[in-house]
Amino acid sequence: MATVELTTANFDEVTSKDGIVLVDFWASWCGPCVRFAPVYDRSSAKHGEIVFGKVDTEAQPELAAKFDIRSIPTIMAIRDGVIVFAQPGALPESALESLIEQVQALDMDDVRKQLAAHNH
Questions:
Q1: Which residues of 59-93 are buried (b: 16+ CB within 10 A; e: fewer)?
Q2: What values do phi and psi take at 104, rounded to 5?
Q3: Which of 16, 63, 107, 114 is the most buried (most CB within 10 A)?
Q4: Per-residue pLDDT at 1 exceeds 70
Q5: Which has more pLDDT, 117 or 103?
Q6: Among residues 73, 90, 96, 119, which one has the least CA distance to residue 20?
Q7: Is 63 a catalytic residue?
Q8: Residue of 38, 29, 86, 17 lying closest to 59 (CA atoms)
Q9: What are the beta bridge partners of residue 4?
Q10: What is the DSSP string of 29-93?
Q11: Does the annotation count 30 as an active-site position?
């Protein structure tokens, strides 16, 4: 599956659905972002069940600000509408695959309980 361009217009709609959405915050002038893009694309081709989104921080500064993105690339993992991971830095392919496996293995009921406990 090709990557999906995420904008302020479609971000909430795409990321609030059930399932996994990976988001790559990037910019065309960012060397590490450009080097990470083929890794991200290969992973998207392997995992058709996952939505791979990209946010161009130059074109979408509101989204970058909303998520307090201070360094790019930043990878964010969202599962069932819940942000479960966010970290700056280009990941090697093995680390990206490991992240996907970990997000797939999460017990979302447990994650929601932990969030509810943390927010009280």
A1: ebeebbeebebeebbbbbbbbbeeebeeeeebbee
A2: -65, -30
A3: 63
A4: no
A5: 103
A6: 96
A7: no
A8: 29
A9: 53
A10: T-HHHHHHHHHHHHHHHH-TTSEEEEEETTT-HHHHHHTT--SSSEEEEEETTEEEEEEESPPPH
A11: yes
| Mean pLDDT estimate for the chain | 94
pLDDT tier at 3, thresholds 50, 70, 90: confident
For residues 42 and 39, what is the distance between their CA atoms, to the nearest angstrom?
5
Pair of tokens at residue 44: 């998207």
- Of 30, 34, 37, 95, the active-site residue reads 30
Q: Are 7 and 15 in contact (CB under 8 A)?
A: no
pLDDT band for position 89 (50/70/90)?
very high
33, 55, 69, 77: the catalytic one is 33
Residues 6+ away with beta carbon under 8 Å from 39: 90, 91, 92, 93, 96
Residue percentage of the chain with pLDDT more than 70: 98
CA distance linking residue 89 with residue 40, whole number of Å: 13
Structure tokens at 12: 């909430």
